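Weekly sync, protein design subgroup
Attendees: M.S., D.O., the rotation student, P.L. (late)

Item 1: inverse folding check
M.S. brought a backbone from last month's batch and wanted to see whether the design step gives back something sensible before we order anything. D.O. pointed out we never logged the input encoding, so this time it goes straight into the notes. Structure tokens as presented (98 positions):
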């Protein structure tokens, strides 16, 4: 912040540190129309997660639909099981998977 003469007024700046963790996609499931996909991934720390993705024709790119990637699971199977209970198209398409 600045005062009326342009001098800096005592202010506190908070810097946020982001812990960036890389992931490895271990399985991908797609719907028959190839407009949705589910990525199951493993993080650096050995935990698993998933993300529901939608293909945008205008953007010609995949975009996350939910914020599912913040959920943490111990195994790949647990991530798949949980995705089936949270994402409707996955439940229908993967009814026999794990």
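Designed sequence read out in the meeting:
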């Amino acid at each position: 912040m600045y005062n009326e003469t342009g001098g800096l007024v005592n202010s506190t700046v908070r810097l946020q540190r982001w812990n960036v963790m890389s992931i490895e996609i271990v399985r991908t499931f797609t719907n028959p129309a190839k407009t949705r996909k589910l990525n199951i991934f493993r993080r650096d720390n050995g935990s698993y997660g998933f993300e529901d993705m939608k293909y945008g024709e205008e953007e010609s790119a995949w975009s996350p639909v939910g914020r599912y990637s913040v959920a943490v699971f111990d195994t790949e199977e647990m991530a798949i099981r949980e995705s089936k209970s949270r994402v409707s198209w996955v439940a229908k398409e993967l009814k026999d998977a794990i």
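Discussion: The chain is about 15% helix and 30% strand. The chain has a mean pLDDT of 83.
Action: P.L. to compare against the previous round before Friday.
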